[in-house]
Predict the 3D structure of the following.
Amino acid sequence: MSQTITEKGKTLHSSEETIVQMVDARAAKYGDRTVMQSKQNGSWVDVTWSRLAGAYRDVARGLLQLGLGHNDSIAILSENRPEWAFADLGIYATKGVVVPLYWTLTPSQIRYILKDSAAKAIFVSNADFLDRILQIRSELPDLATIIVFDKIPSRTLPEGVMYLEDLVVLGCGAPPEVWESMGRSIAGGRKSDLATIIYTSGTTGEPKGVVLTHDNFLSNVRGVLAVIDVGETDSCLSFLPLSHVFERIALYLFLYAGGLIHYAESIETVVANMSEVHPTILVSVPRIYEKAFGRILDRVRESALPRRMIFAACLKIGAKVSWRLQTGQPVDGFLARGHRIADKLVFAKLRETFGGRIRLMISGGAPLNKHIAEFFHAAGLLILEGYGLTETSPVISANFADSLRFGTVGHTIPEVEVKIAEDGEILAKGPNIMVGYYNRPEETAEAIDADGWFYTGDIGHIDGDGFLVITDRKKSLIVTSGGKNVAPAAIENALSADKFIDQAFAYGDARKFISALIVPDWERVEKYAEEHKIKFSTHAQLCNHPVINALIQRRVDEALEEFAPFERIKKFKLMEQEFSQEDGEVTPTLKLKRKEITRKYWKELDSLYQD
């Protein structure tokens, strides 16, 4: 029998039907207040609300002068920066459709997306991205214009390529009818207008273009804000790719709430940038929290015994407070006093890792290890894990500050429903569900039934208190030769939480037992090898060393001791290199591409079953 849950809660109502109408309303309210900051030449540079509204209009007029407009696909290939938002909103102002591209894509991958979406123009940020497009330009008959954000010294641009500032000049010289056309386009926007085509990362095959409307995004933003407190005094650090729907909805959420967005210089500078801008909210994938967790534990282990004892005592107090908060019990008396002392001695210093002002952390894109969430909550850092897909704009459910259960993805947000099908698949329904897959009516019909239920492809259940629990992807479930169903994500999540294991890939479909490819945390493994007088010059030598393999075997056994016997790893192979985006082995949110890894490392996997 199917189960259904619907979260009751207030819904934010607004006359703003499109994202640009929403931005205009906030610009009228906040004027010269700063909405964005980016670091240029060592200093943080402000973008005000007025500047944002003016900049996207400059882009829109230029696009209209080029003959671009209603339902034309226009791509963006750029790192996170204010110009990304200028282009995004400018395209919307012409009633165009944004096609975001990951900056890690190869020219062939870019070619597929641009051809499939029939993109007529593309914004690129720098010379590297321009060169990628120029490599494939002859194969893209629809692509007429390339617009570059950054000036490229000592280089003449080929025909059909222009700088952003030249586009702005072109737009400023537009006749009055173009200005009037843009005004009508913005004012006449409707919530059903197409906003974007986002190409899925393709964990199991060729990417599909997910078509989303302005209402898909704005209904999702309103639903999240109805249950998670984000306001005009909040700030965030943007570092996940804006080409992914998770960071995209975070952008629109902060614009809607009137908050401040800081753009990180790069993924490598996130920690340093947080210490400079002191964000109040962090939006991230689990890998960032896992890395921070590991660094904190390493510092504790390397400290003197008295410090380790103080940390352990404070963490014990924090765990008690965390449990009381999760179960709605008061924190008072000796526990409250003890927690204040623990906060002063330990927890306040931990929060400095994230800039010192963090009051809320949001996790999505992949499963978050329950123990990591509990650890940070004990330290006074609340991580709210959510769940969704590109096709759902993306948020379906989330943990809320007043309705929290670690190890789950919470309750549905307002106006979104979830039910569990007979085979365990999670189905979702609401205003956040996509229009469909671009030019793929048959696949759209397979994904969304006649009653509007979207088939997520995820397996899960609803617990006794209405919290949604995700088990794994339906297509990822391993069925052993003995007929046992195994969810690989749970195994991989448990293994990667170990300090000596960086990544893990579980395998065993139609096999007698479960095996794994394991990428060690090489920094820790090298240190272990040095401590145990193991001589090595390459990681390959360590991969084949019996002492290192025995170490990983112990860690694997400990990590999976609570799993059923048929779910435990019987054999594994250590890998020299991590699974990476560049090699096509993980998605931009660092989820493993199972089909690609299996294909690429078939010999290694098969060898584990030869004895």
Q: What stands out?
A: Residues 19-189+242-265 form a domain with the Rossmann fold fold (CATH 3.40.50.12780). The chain has a mean pLDDT of 92. The first strand starts at residue 3 and ends at 6.
